[in-house]
Amino acid sequence: MTADAESGTISGGHLVAKALKAEGIDVIFTLCGGHIIDIYDGCIDEGIEVVDVRHEQVAAHAADGYARITGKPGCAVVTAGPGTTDAVTGVANAFRAESPMLLIGGQGALSQHKMGSLQDLPHVDMMTPITKFAATVPSTERVADIVSMAFRECYNGAPGPSFLEIPRDVLDAKVPLEKARIPEAGRYRASTRQLGDPAAIERLADLIVHSEKPAILLGSQVWTCRATSDAVDFVRALNVPAYMNGSGRGTLPPGDPHHFQLSRRYAFTEADLIIIVGTPFDFRMGYGKRLSPTATVVQIDLDYRTVGKNRDIDLGIVGDAGLVLSAAAAAATGREDNGSARRKKWLEELREVETKAFEKRLPRQLSGSQPIDPYRLVHEINEFLTEDTIYIGDGGDIVTFSGQVVQPKSPGHWMDPGPLGTLGVGVAFAMAAKYAQRDKEVLCLFGDGAFSLTGWDFETMVRFDLPFIGVIGNNSSMNQIRYGQAAKYGDDRGRVGNTLGDVRYDEFARMLGGYGEEVRDPADIRPALERARESGKPALINVWVDPDVYAPGTMNQTMYK
């Protein structure tokens, strides 16, 4: 029972669990430690599953992934000291990716504050720069109250992570139930959906109506805001070509007449109106320099600090992507001539550019060469995906290849680390995705270097019966870095600190109770994927790819020039 029936008291750990339950959380990702076990006891009573992993980084990444898949905040629980520091990378990744999650870390007892207790570190000081909220819970009575406060702060502006440390004596202590503040589900957070300035939306509608060559980039916030239908209605009603990045991929299905991918650079050079939705002008956008200097640029974002950062804009709107696009479409389509008919030639022009780019690359995608051309591998993966396959990319060069070719067929079915570029998210994201959507197929493409970072949690997937299809593009190298070193210092120094062993990851999978298969011939890729699907187990297909072939995106990275 959550409360002691005889004394009418409740412990701090059980208050944590009650607060998590109020937020709708049904699972925590964790690695055990003596500081935090009372939370587990509370979770059992509240019906919250405890998924224990082999590294705290995985727990934090899984909480991040759970938030992306479900739209609810994720939660990871780790012990003090090294348990919390191990999770820092996962929290930092969620921070840059605007993913709402709560990390709860243990801490030494308040009664031993500053005495050098086991695993005592200044966690809050370390977490403050990479969270939206970080605090110590000072008393048992306040535990649930401050957990709800942390969740509330996750949704202040663009979403992000929060951190709480809870001292061991605060967690273990029991207080009278009537003295503990326990916020009621649904009554401690307001709606954060903002429409944006109505005058700015009218101006956006006017810009669209008079535009001859508009283009829109649908970024991750389109999925964060669950704005898929609004975005689709917008581009179809106004005949606007759409490009997608990050979690925005899949907003429009492949083959949709408004879905474009390979002509983005051309479009952003030739367009007279460019609408950027939920994507910052960071390195992925060339800090805004890749947009035509003569185009009218509109930026829509949840966070006012992102709007106009790194590049001047003509119109900035702070608000929910779905509400803003829906309102702008309504304002524009209400006009006698919204310009959609005359934009037909513009879409035809972009489609011609798109087709030429596809045909130029197609021979590589169908290549029968050995070692396998990475383009062939990602082509086979793209052809293998179903409408219910969640695709995850975890790697450097090999995932850069996939970004050009792999097209998820449904919204919310693309996962990548985000702008922090964190390697090692793959197994954790697969864990979260499969736990949250057991009816979905999950496929993760790893680089061999990326898998090596957190791959032991493949065993967690086996233990919790979470089948997924893992594909390792194995070139025995950290190839994205290798290219940069060779380009910068010469081929004779291109193999310094970036070369890995020829590891048989298929054997590793079998050793841990999963399905494993090795592929050297490109003709064997699809059959191996099919067998992995049919196995019903966590699987690793170890595909040997050509180590001397690099993705165009790798070769174009400015850090190497």
From TrEMBL:
UniProt-listed InterPro entries: DHS-like_NAD/FAD-binding_dom, THDP-binding, Thiamin_PyroP_enz_cen_dom, Thiamin_PyroP_enz_TPP-bd_dom, TPP_enz, TPP_enzyme_TPP-bd
Keywords from the named record: Thiamine pyrophosphate
GO cellular component: acetolactate synthase complex
One BP annotation, GO: isoleucine biosynthetic process
Residue intervals of the Thiamine pyrophosphate enzyme N-terminal TPP-binding domain: 11-120
The keyword Transport appears for this protein: no
Signal peptide positions (record): none
Cofactor: thiamine diphosphate
A GO molecular-function descriptor: acetolactate synthase activity
Domain Thiamine pyrophosphate enzyme TPP-binding intervals: 394-543
Domain annotation Thiamine pyrophosphate enzyme central: ranges: 201-327
Membership in a protein family: Belongs to the TPP enzyme family.
Protein name: Acetolactate synthase I/II/III large subunit
